[in-house]
Specification:
The protein is of the alpha/beta class. The chain is built from 16 helices and 18 strands. It is globular and about 80 Å long. The structure holds xanthosine-5'-monophosphate (XMP).
Length: 537
């Protein structure tokens, strides 16, 4: 699973079947991450890119000959859920350990390295999970320039190396292991039991940087300026034909539309479908910054009645998602037929949607149908253009900034494709939409005013069918209860409820009950994910 975008039309299912991976060409001079299904595989690539060196995920079994042909400067073996001694455990091409290309094994990757050199890996007597103290015993190569003798690092493993072969040398220890980090005698292969890519590891970036520049001798060639220039050139060379792009106001589709506008303004048509389930003022804002300020050819369609009609009487969350996806696809198709012909469809698909991490693990069970809210109609037979398909979210933000998108748009919290429908428990009625929208606007406004908006992953409010008793003046009244939910997260896979200052809670609560008609009570959600999810539906 990946982070979300708020593009209702993002059709990751389609993304998986098409076109050769262009990212492979970019890997010349870069670092390949062989993906063994670890939860941090994407994070490794992101961190390396942030150092200015291109990095991409490849299937764990990619042959070394192919890596050489791609011109990669080094290989990282990711973590993963398996045990190296287990039957059916994923193993890389043996030649990875021949010394021809520098290697850094992380966690499971470290265990593979130990095993491949003839050492022993066994189930540890004690699982090591969370923060741990690492004592560096050799402050050269990957630890060079790190003056602290002991650093905090992030561990997450159930197996440990119990015996090292002679050609592997320990370079750091932890409370649990005398070989928490190792190197090969020739100084080209490294293994770390901890996760340098995780923010909780002190000097993690330096460890990666030492490997990338010191060991692999990679050069800083990856920048958003360079990417933008190449991508615009490529888009300009796209064959004749008109391009249709659905925008939602979210970061990904906005950046996509502005890029296309720069490359092929006269052939571009963008459409914004207002589902009636958007945040307050959203339609007007999108039109203002894309059309008026940046000159992107954009048409807005108010389809709110159609969406609300289709949702009448439906309270099952998955059914709601499906209906919204279907109505969206129908609206889109109608528009495309009316304003066509179009040859291309542009989408803001991101790298994690194209490359699903965990290539070795069984597909996770579907908790919510996130991205594939419905997909776009296939019988339009449009060719896809996805200018962001090599990029991570933070890179898209940097690109958006280069393209002149306003900072508020680039920093906006994720918003689900089905919009307020997933923040309304039970049937979606115009009355509940009004209360939900009003309360959401207040939460966002107060968080911005209190300078807390950028501190959290998402801040919103949801409504259900709870009716609670209140007093208005001297009168007894019955009204709705709204729940405020604010969470911190790094990737939406897990989230922690935000310990909100009481004064801010108070401001939010009194503004909601004063300003949103029909609401008499405000609650604050104090559940993390898991066991709850971020959105209530
Ligand atoms: P949950 O609620 O599963 O959400 O913890 C994780 C992230 O995904 C967003 N979300 C969605 N995004 N379509 C989307 O495009 C959806 O149906 C959907 N449901 C949840 C949610 O806002 C959070 O950022």
């Amino acid at each position: 699973m990946t982070q979300t975008t708020r593009n209702p039309a993002s059709a990751s299912q389609q993304a998986k079947v098409r076109s050769p991976r262009k990212d492979l060409g970019l890997l010349r001079g870069g670092i390949a991450v062989l993906d063994f299904g670890g939860q941090y595989s994407h994070l490794i690539a992101r961190r390396i890119r942030a150092l200015g060196v291109y990095s991409a995920l490849l299937p764990f079994e990619t042959p070394v000959a192919a890596l050489k042909e791609m011109g990669v400067k080094g290989v990282v073996l990711s973590g993963g859920p398996s045990s190296v001694y287990g039957s059916g455990a994923p193993h890389p091409d043996k030649a990875v350990f021949s010394g021809a290309i520098p290697v850094l094994g992380i966690c499971y990757g470290y265990q593979l390295l130990v095993q491949a050199h003839g050492g022993d890996v066994k189930r540890a007597s004690r699982r090591e999970y969370g923060k741990s103290s690492l004592k560096i015993t050799e402050r050269t190569s990957i630890f060079s320039g790190i003056d602290d003798r002991s650093i905090t690092c992030w561990m997450s493993h159930g197996d440990s190396a119990t015996k090292l072969p002679r050609d592997l040398v320990p370079i750091a220890t932890s409370d649990n292991s005398p070989f928490a980090a190792i190197r090969s005698a020739d100084g080209l292969q490294f293994g770390v039991q901890f996760h340098p890519e995780v923010v909780h590891t002190e000097h993690g970036d330096e460890v990666l940087s030492n490997f990338v520049f010191g060991v692999c001798r990679a050069e800083r060639k990856w920048s958003m300026e360079g990417f933008l220039e190449d991508a615009l050139d490529e888009l300009k060379q796209t064959h004749e034909g008109r391009v249709l792009c659905a925008v939602s106001g979210g970061v990904d589709s906005s950046v996509t539309s502005v890029m296309l506008d720069k490359a092929m303004h006269e052939r571009l048509q963008c459409v914004f479908i207002d589902t009636g389930l958007l945040r307050e003022g959203e339609g007007a804002e999108v039109s203002k910054f894309l059309k008026e300020d940046l000159g992107v050819p954009l048409e807005s369609i108010d389809a709110s009645k159609r969406f609300l009609d289709a949702l009448r009487g439906v309270s099952d969350p998955e059914k709601k998602r499906k209906i919204i996806g279907k109505v969206f696809a129908d609206e889109f198709e109608e528009y495309a037929r009316k304003k066509g012909p179009f040859r291309y469809l542009a989408q803001g698909t991101l790298y994690p949607d194209v490359i699903e991490s965990g290539q070795t693990s069984a597909p996770a069970s579907v908790i919510k149908t996130h991205h594939n809210v419905g997909g776009l109609p296939k019988d339009l037979k449009l060719e896809l253009i996805e200018p962001l398909r090599e990029l991570y979210k933070d890179e898209v933000r940097a690109l958006g900034s280069l393209l002149g998108l306003p900072a508020e748009v680039l920093r906006r919290h994720p918003f689900p494709g089905p919009g307020l429908a997933v923040r309304i428990i039970g049937e979606v009625t115009p009355e509940k939409v009004r209360m939900c929208r009003g309360a959401n606007a207040i939460v966002e406004q107060v968080m911005r005013e209190e300078k807390l908006y950028d501190e959290v992953w998402q801040a919103f409010a949801y409504v259900g069918d709870d009716r609670v008793t209140g007093v208005l003046g001297d009168e007894r009244t019955v009204g709705t209860q709204v729940t405020v939910r604010v969470v911190q997260s790094v990737d939406a896979m897990t989230a922690d409820w935000y310990r909100m200052p009481h004064t801010v809670m108070e401001r939010i609560s009194s503004r909601i009950t004063n300003e949103v008609d029909g609401v008499v009570s405000v609650a604050y959600s104090i559940s993390s994910k898991p066991p709850a999810t971020i959105e209530p539906q």
